Amino acid sequence: MEVANLKLLIWAGLLISLIVCGFAQQGGNNCIKVNAKSCADCIQAGPNCGWCKNSSFLQEGESTSALCDDLEILKSKGCPPEEIENPRGSQQMLKNKEVTNRVKGSAETLKVENITQIQPQQVALKLRIGEPQTFSLKFKRAEDYPIDLYYLMDLSYSMKDDLENVKSLGTALMGKMKNITSDFQIGFGSFVEKTVMPYISTTPAKLKNPCTGDLNCTSPFSYKNVLNLTGNGTEFNKLVGKQHISGNLDSPEGGFDAIMQVAVCGEKIGWRKDVTRLLVFSTDAGFHFAGDGKLGGIVLPNDGQCHLDNNMYTMSHYYDYPSIAHLVQKLSDNNIQIIFAVTQEFQPVYKELKNLIPKSAVGTLSSNSSNVIQLIIDAYNSLSSEVILENNKLPKEVAIEYKSFCKNGVNGTGDEGRKCSNISIGDEVKFEIKVTATQCPEKGQTDPIRIKPLGFTEEVEIKLEFICECDCHKEGIADSSQCHNGTFECGACRCKPGRIGKTCECSMDEVNSEDMSGTCRAPNSTEICSNNGECICGQCVCKTRDNPNEIYSGQFCHCDNFNCDRSDGLICGGHGECKCRECDCWQNYTGSACECPLDTTPCEAANKQICNGRGICECGVCNCTDSKFQGPTCELCQTCLGVCAEHKDCVQCRAFDKGDKKDKCDEECSHFNMTLVDHRDKLPQPGDFGAQTHCKEKDVDDCWFYFTYSVESSKAIVHVVKTP
Predict the structure, then answer these.
(1) Cα gap 94→114, rounded to integer Å
(2) Which of 150, 113, 174 is closest to 269 using CA atoms?
(3) Cα(331)–Cα(329) distance, rounded to whole angstroms?
(4) What digits encode the pLDDT tens for the residues 244-295?
(5) DSSP result, 167-216
(6) What is the DSSP letter of 595?
(7) 590 CB-near residues (< 8 Å, 6+ apart)
């Protein structure tokens, strides 16, 4: 039983060793494979890589790159923790003003620029390659936040009835919006189409009045800014009331030209900073987009610039319509949320367009626009109920991940991690932002990352600093006497370009010189570096293996620590260290695989004799010199006379608590396992156990008792009839 337990412990140790080795191998591989020539190369290989700056750490034959390895492996190889370079990333909140708790109608009157809806505002991250830095972002939509709404209307002839209802929109909408905000501005613009064929008729009469019959229509135009954003609803009604319908030839309209100008001409239209910007786009037709300008001979792509002169778009004949992607970019850059108020017929078209434009909404416009106010309020509430984070174009050296923590325990990751839905004004939501560096920038630092909620001007600025050098780099000694053409830093030479070797002693042109390779051969050998390394500058630089715990070493890379004899599946039996393919056994172990313990305790019998004087203790196991005897201490002899007589006193004291050994039973009679049975026919029968003897002996009361003495797996087993 003891031997079985010993084997179980050995196998358990082997399994644990394999698991630990596996993890170490998995972690250390990247550190070794990068073949780091400096501490900087090492720490850029991964967050688990460290550099041992102790110059005496390397074994003979190991290259400078062996200073770079998994952190735990470096420690296990003997590098003092204080000698390991392992810089870590960090983060610092530079601006972290709390979000504003503002309630509509309260006595508190804050200026718009003093309202904070996103926290933090500025973060500094120090990034090490592969080590993510994570921080929390909080967003809370302030109540009573100012709103600018610009109403952009299609004034082609089919919208004649709609214009009549829009003429009173200013004062009516302002009255409704008071329930949402106390600071509301409204503006108005109109569009028709590009003023070239085939979109309009260019005959002189049609240019003056594009409508037929007695209808008095205004000349066709592309886009006109009628009213800058104002808080005067009456002025809105007055100016819109003076507008007249125009006309064009084709069904799709030039609304995209108008949207672009409204987005980029902020100063001329009067968009305020730090407000919610809404653009209501009202039409009963489809739209032209990039490429359609070719029909009129217009091939120059839209330049996305402001071209308003006297409130008229003057370059419609020169630049093509913008693409959808171009509009998305400009609307986002200028924090404008668009509401498409379109008739039922074109709902499917604009719903598809909505899916391409973040933070946009579609409402069904009645045939005469009588429901436009309720449409705007419903769309605004819909837009306000969703927060979507976006970032500027990321530097190629970093990756970013989002995780959202929304209302009612709803969390999101991936693309869903950028947004929260079904929130009300005043609700607070949180996001987790994870930034990871993937490489060091080629030229110093990179531009900051900017994260903002779509439709808002507030943003979080993330300043980036990359950890691409070790701290010990600052202490490097240029042109050190320890290095030829290099800098001694972090315990090793960092060679100048074109130089190589542990001390930068060679030029790259000399590396494979035949003259140098002769010093890399062992005496009486033709193999360079024993086929386990490369000859560089006349010295062997040993190969590295996938398993970081397996190392070639020696002047000719002729040594290793993994080709020693094994016992129980372990190198050197787990009781020694493999040095240059020979086991260096620990104390009290010997043998080619350290498989033999020198301790004789397992061979001691109950009488304190080694193997009962009948054998020799070898490797902790009795080797019985007389073949008649067996057992862990050569105590068993099944062919000897007197087996029954030899053990009857111990059986008697253990089974019946009497006899000559009663007082010292525990001390002298624990060498067998005992089982009591009811009758003689319950005793083991021949063949049940190996080496079995049936015994009939008299006890101290002159009564007969029956027992069997057996041996199973080198352990004595006794069965006794419990009644003498």
Answers:
(1) 18
(2) 150
(3) 6
(4) 878 776 778 889 999 999 999 999 999 998 899 999 998 888 899 999 888 8
(5) TTHHHHHHHHHTTT-S-EEEEEEEE---SSTTTS--SHHHHH--S-TT--
(6) -
(7) 596, 598
